[in-house]
Amino acid sequence: SLPRGPPRKPRQSGHALWVGNLPPGTTVVDLKDHFSREASKDIESLFLISKSNCAFVNYKTEASCTAAMHRFHDSRFHGVRLVCRLRRSAAPASGVPTGPSAMSVPRQRSQSPERSASPHPPDPVTSDGDTIVETEEKRPFDGEPREDGPPAKVAEKFFVVKSLTLQDLELSVRNGIWATQSHNEDALNKAYDTAENVYLIFSANKSGEYFGYARMASPINDNGIDLIHSVPETQASETSDTPKSIPTPATEWAPKGRIIDDSARGTIFWEADPSEDEEEENKPDGSVQPVELDGPNTPQTWGKPFRIDWISTNRLPFYRTRGLRNPWNANREVKIARDGTELEPGVGKRLIQMFHRLGPQAAGPPAIPLMPMPGQMAGPQMRPF
């Protein structure tokens, strides 16, 4: 299978109802019928978190969501009284990871990455208590056009990349391929065009550590599908964990829709098909546009594959980065990041250096650098094409 980042999220308008106290064995099908009562034209999607016995139900408007809360709170479902709460901070954000870890607790609305550091950010410290001295460089060009020639390239850019499973990362180490969420592709391509090296720092969900880091070795474009065919058949044929799209017909209460089952990555949700009126609104100039459904035969849902060169797979526990903050992400600690978050270059360089200072005490199986670390290369490194 193709290594990839977090899967597609259910359709959301920002008006969500948290539902708790679900009985064991609850299914998405039962829930969508229950929460569609008197709201068949308003329900948008439903995300089930079986391990926590709870779910999130998304409605199209605030009014319909509030009405649903009053209608279903303390209602009976399979003999159990449900608990319902409005989730005020449920406005959708494209970079928020999906799955139980992202949906189990309310999250504050995210802020856009800051492009200028605060005048006096706190000095980060290492796990040993030593102050890290940051020499923050100004960005005179950062790929912007110059009057006397083509855009200037910066030396390095750094991004945090999330994966829902350790298996996806291990597969990427074997075949040198990754695919990110589609909304991250433009930022990574721009970085690839404007920097000599773009480093991706990987972490598996709920692992409490960084898995390793790699360098982008190709841009992300439509030719990436050819990379899949270049992967050995023993790797490409592993499709048992491919997400499934299961159509659901309209019932007495619920509209027609589909279940997206990505159980291998802890994600299962139902979403209603858009109405004819909504489809018309989404068509430019009223013309008919093809719509790609999410299913096992549409790998583009997960983004286009691109090549990466793994440099280190030493594990770096989050506690070792304590005190290291990213001024481009509201000065939060680096461990607090979405998939695709860019790191301030000085912070990114310090973070990847930590991978090469680790000994056998690091979490996970010890590994050696797969490539020379930045700064040990003679001259600028060329990208293979």
Structure description:
A seven-stranded antiparallel sheet has the order 6-1-3-2-14-13-12, covered by helices on one side. Strands 8-15-11-9-7-19 form a six-stranded mixed sheet, with helices on both faces. The relative contact order is 0.18. 18% of the residues lie in helices and 23% in strands. By secondary structure, it is an alpha+beta fold. Among the domains are: 16-90 and 242-275, Alpha-Beta Plaits (2-Layer Sandwich), CATH 3.30.70; 154-232 and 301-356, Roll (ph1033 like fold), CATH 3.10.590.10. The radius of gyration is 23 Å and the shape is elongated. The protein is built from nine helices and 19 strands. Residues 156-355 form the YTH domain.
